[in-house]
Amino acid sequence: MEQLTLEAILNVFKWKQYESAIILQTVRWYLKYSLSYRDIVEMMSERGLKISHTTIMRWVHEFGPEIDKRIRPFLKPTNDSWRTYETYVKVKGQWKYLYRAVDARGKTIDFMLSGNRDMQAAKRFFTKALSSPHNQIPRVITLDKNPAYPPAIQELLNEKFLPKEILIRRTKYLNNIVEQDHRFIKKITKPMLGFKTFLTAERTLKGIEAMHMIRKGQAVDN
After folding, report:
1. pLDDT at position 76, please?
2. Would you state the pLDDT for residue 146?
């Protein structure tokens, strides 16, 4: 199923110096496995292809968001039990916040990189997740102790983006499933030793999260 889904995006690689399958292979390796750009340069060299690490980096920044965008119409519906938590990503030597949510089965609901951990960021994240057509309106949302979440949810209730019957839980052990899911993202980003800019972090993380959703079987080919 992964291969079928990825083939659906091959047309975005037209007019490049290298064949689309080669570009897709290097981008896929970087976004899915714990590899550095230089690891992939070496792997491609063993296959008779001389590609610089900066070329692969540009491909990742360009096509990571494309993969995320292209798989969205193919995502299976998530369920209505949301587990929300943030993790940290280093950008230019400073920690930034990666908002993430999964459902009760561990399927990715959505994600968002933010420079801040406040009410406005929390609201933006929930608004993004609610706007994704593969997500159900939540029946219950499980939160961590971040004090920014309740006022953000209250604003969404006032604006009728969330139903008034929604159940809000702040029970740490119920969020173990999203904490475990964070570990995969951390495993992929660890060899990267931090990002140089917020934009490149955001673009790369979109690709990593998209590949993670494919790995979890969330994408289907229609």
Report:
1. 94
2. 86
First to last CA, the chain: 11
Per-residue DSSP letter, 76: P
Its pTM stands at: 0.89
160 phi-psi bin (left φ>0, alpha ψ -120 to 50, beta other)? left
* Tokens 């999260």 -> residue: 209
Crossing angle between the packed helical segments 37-45 and 53-71, to the nearest 10 degrees = 100
**Minimum mean pLDDT among 7-16, 85-94, 159-168, 205-214: which range?**
7-16
Place of tokens 């587990």: 83
Say which amino acid occupies 28.
R
Q: Which strand (E) or helix (H) includes residue 142?
A: strand 140-142
Name residue 140's beta-bridge partners: 81, 167
